[in-house]
Specification:
This protein is an all-alpha fold and 160 residues long. It has one domain. 68% of the residues lie in helices and 0% in strands. The chain is built from 6 helices and no strands. 22% of the residues are buried.
Length: 160
């Protein structure tokens, strides 16, 4: 469970804003996990039943083959979805690493990236995504501030 202290430790939020973001995250996280878990289950089911294989005797076999997702693509999507679920869990626990050299922590960039990736796997008609979109909006604003801080640091520390 994400805490205000974990968000505050990023150095990009006042404590009140960190508390607000942690609250948004904790409301949205169970639904985010459910969405990606269901997505993974669907992909695994497609792989299990070998959905890319079309019975040549089927009257619409040629048309079905054009829309069948190849096995390699399903397995690639499954790997990405499993990585997404793992990353969301790590962010929730404050152990996410943006790179192998970084210490585990909650990061604005990591959270924003993962939430955007999750929203890319949801449909517009999916129930219960309002909290996720609210979280995404707050993370988008925070990422914009972080990027402005990085640009300013770079401007000040780059020799001309």
């Amino acid at each position: 469970m994400l805490t205000a202290d974990m968000v505050f430790d990023t150095g990009h939020f006042s404590y009140a804003d960190a508390d607000h973001l942690a609250d948004l995250w904790n409301r949205a996280y169970p639904r985010m996990r459910e969405i990606v878990t269901n997505y993974i289950a669907g992909l695994r089911s497609s792989i299990e039943r070998q959905s890319w294989e079309v019975d040549p005797k089927h009257p619409q076999a040629e048309a079905l083959r054009q829309f069948a997702t190849p096995e390699a693509e399903l397995r690639r999507k499954l790997k990405l979805a499993e990585d997404l679920r793992r990353g969301l869990g790590q962010l929730d626990r404050g152990t996410h690493k943006l790179c192998t050299c970084s210490p585990g922590a909650f990061t604005v960039t990591g959270a924003y990236t993962h939430v955007r990736n999750l929203l890319g796997r949801t449909s517009l008609s999916q129930e219960g995504v309002g909290d996720i979109y609210r979280l995404a909006a707050v993370l988008a604003d925070a990422e914009e501030r972080v990027n402005a801080e990085r640009a300013e640091w770079h401007r000040q520390n780059t020799t001309a």
